[in-house]
Amino acid sequence: MQGLIIGNISNLYKIKVNNKTYNATVRGRFKIDETTPVVGDLVEIQILNEIEKQAVIEKIHERKSYIKRPKVANVSQIILVISVKDPKPDLLMLDKQLAYAEFLKITPVIVINKIDLSENYKEIENIYTKIGYKVYPISAKDIKSIEQLKNILKSNISVLAGNSGVGKSTIINTIFNKNITEEGVISKKNKRGKNTTTDAKIYEIDQDSYIVDTPGFSTFDISEIESKELDKYFKEFVPEIENCEYVGCSHIKEPICGIKQAVEIGKISMERYERFCKIYKELKEKEKNKW
User: pLDDT per position in the chain (291 positions), as tens?
Assistant: First the structure.
């Protein structure tokens, strides 16, 4: 029987098969092959006990995509959630996530939550819309806002990613109109969210439409991307690279640089460029320490 892994707690997998859910363990050979099933995997299972809904995973189907952190398979789009305030928008994190989505070849969608708290989101919306990303300003508890979001979730396995406290759980609860996932708590002292989701979980919106909730990120590691390749994953940079005088231009110190020229004339956002430089230097430092 073929099913979809919708949850994993201590290597006990929840497998959805049509309208039934089974608890499954893994055959020993997966340990030998070092292949571990993850949420989002399509798997073949053998039923051990139909009454108690016990099964064992026999085979993992080939993955269309795979995210290492958090471990999720077959995602077709990443919904990157930031908030206008409480916590304040972390655009460095967002740019890392966008670069990583481009690296993975998974469609990113930006959701700016809590717009009822401030109108400061409009500048962020303009920057990323100009680049070519889909941006959805919403208030997670507003059903009309969520209805717009639900349209882009259809026929996709979508993963929600973002810092703790930005409202991922609230978005999911509003989509389903019930508290299916515990909402995060914002510390009044430091305005940072406290994690409530401890593992990736997948929820079925309707047939062929799923949403994955993940633990909040306080940091985000994109070390799979080499520093010299980073410019390829800032999509507005790509057309300007050919205007660089030097092959392999880092766009940091070189004098005649197509990226820096585009920044000077306002074609590329200065703030985005500055965050690119920070990410580039972070990657460069990690590469230096790697050896």
Answer: 999 999 888 889 999 998 899 999 998 766 656 678 999 999 999 999 999 999 999 999 999 999 887 788 999 999 999 999 888 999 999 999 999 999 999 999 999 999 988 888 999 999 999 999 999 999 987 888 888 888 999 999 999 888 888 988 888 888 888 777 544 333 334 444 443 444 678 888 888 899 987 765 555 678 899 999 999 999 999 999 999 999 999 999 998 999 999 999 999 999 999 999 999 999 999 988 876
The three-state (H, E, C) secondary structure of the chain, written as one string: CEEEEEEEECCEEEEEECCEEEEEEECCHHHHHCCCCCECCEEEEEEEECCCCEEEEEEECCCCCEECCCCEECCCEEEEEEECCCCCCCHHHHHHHHHHHHHHCCEEEEEEECCCCCCCHHHHHHHHHHHCCEEEECCCCCHHHHHHHHHHHCCCEEEEECCCCCCHHHHHHHHHCCCCCCCCEECCCCCCEECCCCCCEEEEEECCEEEEECCCCCCCCCCCCCHHHHHHHCCCCHHHHHHCCCCCCCCCCCCCCHHHHHHHCCCCCHHHHHHHHHHHHHHHHHHHHHC
pTM over cut 0.70: yes
